[in-house]
Amino acid sequence: xxxxxxxxxxxxxxxxxxxxxxxxxxxxxxxxxxxxxxxxxxxxxxxxxxxxxxxxxxxxxxxxxxxxxxxxxxxxxxxxxxxxxxxxxxxxxxxxxxxxxxxxxxxxxxxxxxxxxxxxxxxxxxxxxxxxxxxxxxxxxxxxxxxxxxxxxxxxxxxxxxxxxxxxxxxxxxxxxxxxxxxxxxxxxxxxxxxxxxxxxxxxxxxxxxxxxxxxxxxxxxxxxxxxxxxxxxxxxxxxxxxxxxxxxxxxxxxxxxxxxxxxxxxxxxxxxxxxxxxxxxxxxxxxxxxxxxxxxxxxxxxxxxxxxxxxxxxxxxxxxxxxxxxxxxxxxxxxxxxxxxxxxxxxxxxxxxxxxxxxxxxxxxxxxxxxxxxxxxxxxxxxxxxxxxxxxxxxxxxxxxxxxxxxxxxxxxxxx
Length: 417
Description:
Elements: E1 3-6, E2 16-22, E3 29-30, E4 35-40, E5 45-49, E6 54-59, E7 66-68, E8 72-76, H1 81-91, E9 98-101, H2 102-116, E10 120-124, H3 140-144, E11 149-151, H4 156-168, E12 172-179, H5 187-194, H6 197-200, E13 210-215, E14 240-242, H7 247-259, E15 264-269, E16 276-279, E17 290-293, E18 298-302, H8 305-318, E19 324-328, E20 331-333, H9 337-347, E21 349-357, H10 362-374, E22 380-386, H11 395-401, H12 405-416
Parallel strand pairs: 10-11, 10-12, 12-13, 13-15, 14-15, 18-19, 18-21, 21-22
Antiparallel strand pairs: 1-8, 2-4, 2-7, 3-6, 4-5, 6-8, 9-16, 14-20, 17-19
């Protein structure tokens, strides 16, 4: 295909946007769904994904440049037949699995569940026509129409209330709260209505809602767009909290969440959207942790972005003769106590890595479970988390604020001396 790439509509109020970074170079082929550029809109920095296969020609708007909606930002040219076959060959693996990134896994799960069950609906701010500010949901509105995929006003409380009402009326809503920081605006509907209605109706009326939300720091979004709200809701009976780390789990856990008959909070770390992995489409049961790396000397328990940091730390520790086992919780509520205890009984040492304040975090709950169920096997246990302060906007300060592979490995080495 030849022609031009134009500045896409990434939010309803957008009139112009700035190219923050090009992710492809002139002459480089791209496939439909691949990230082309990072674009700073009036709301957030989002990833612009290709809508077709092609080869990037000339860049018309350089990094730091601004263009109005619909203006050309680059040209497209070249023979893409080889690109299509190469993409197909690299994306599909043995056993029917295919290699995709995290955001595509989320989109596939939504697409397949909307197709599977006519009761499933999907709505939120800028999720339909614009395809989401993080470019996760393009194409769903065009496929399923405005009655099942639609945009809403900017009101998280209204979103949550509409979700609750439609769920108890027989639908299965999936709602996107754009940033997890703004779940506070929907707390009444989540905590006092949705989580308790099955109990209040003597288990007669289910409330099948999924609240999808983007969470986490490291993206330079500042203190009120980078928080990790999982621990805010950990003590609320009646809800499940899901925190995937890989594309396979993102897809499998989201499908399970949509099929669950009561409320599920589904958190997507913004720094994982570009992570690729093999996905077979299998539904992953909620409440099951996974040992992603075997080890004998210490257990590292974590979730979401922390899983990738823990594996990197474990690889570094292997060079020092320390064998670390990494456990991906996958869901924070309910916790998989059996997998936690089995790992600690093998290694006798535990460190829990949480992206979030050390006070009142879910890491403390993990420690409590292990102390209750495996105290006799435990020689050492501690937490690695963030300080009790707001998340800095400054890139070097934000990087230092977050627990990463080096800090995890260094603390383990120190405790092992």
